[in-house]
Amino acid sequence: MNKRGDISLWFLIEFIGAFLIAFLAIDFSVNLAHESIYEKLNIAKELAVQINSLSGIAGNAYIINTNLHGYSIYFSDNKIEVYDDNFDQIRGIYYFVKIGNDKLDLRFKKPSQLVISKINNEIKISEEIQKLK
Fold first, then answer.
1. Neighbouring C-beta atoms of residue 125, cutoff 10 Å
2. Domain segments of the chain: what residues?
3. pLDDT in tens, 97-123
4. What integer is the mean pLDDT of 5-17?
């Protein structure tokens, strides 16, 4: 017999689930409305094209990126992720062709610039300009 005012455990689980679904739907629609997903994806694509271009160049070269709009960037193997913070559900992800056997695992937290360089057939990514040898 249920008394008035009693809350069952199943009701609490349904309530929390409904709240999480509503929160994710609102977060997704706000990001879509602000078009930040497209901006993140375009930054990831631009970085991937630059890495691919440097891979095909003979000799040493570098490219400086200052148009990052305050996003954090994560390079992992042959994938680029652009995001606001670690809990950001909507990330711009793009893949590039990697050269060499080196595994990338670089995380940049809202860098002011990124320098992608090719030195001795090796792609290096940092926040400062590397010396070309």
1. 18
2. 36-126
3. 877 677 788 999 999 999 999 888 888
4. 84
Edge-first strand order for the sheet with 92-95 is 92-95, 79-83, 72-76, 105-108
Instruction: Tell me if 62 sits within 8 A of 115, measured CB to CB.
Output: yes
CB 106 within 8 A of CB 124: no
Of the candidates 13, 16, 109, 23, the residue with the CA atom closest to the CA atom of residue 68 = 109
Are the C-beta atoms of 116 and 62 separated by less than 8 Å? yes
Residue 7 has pLDDT above 90, yes or no: no
Question: By CB neighbour count within 10 A (0-12 exposed, 13-18 middle, 19+ buried), where does 115 fall?
Answer: middle
Distance of CA 80 to the CA centre of its chain: 6
Non-local CB neighbours of 121 within 8 Å, separated by 6+ positions = 99, 100
Question: Tokens at residue 20, please?
Answer: 């999480």
- Per-residue pLDDT, 132: 63
Question: What does the block give as tokens for 47?
Answer: 């970085």
Q: What residues are paired with 74 via a beta bridge?
A: 81, 107
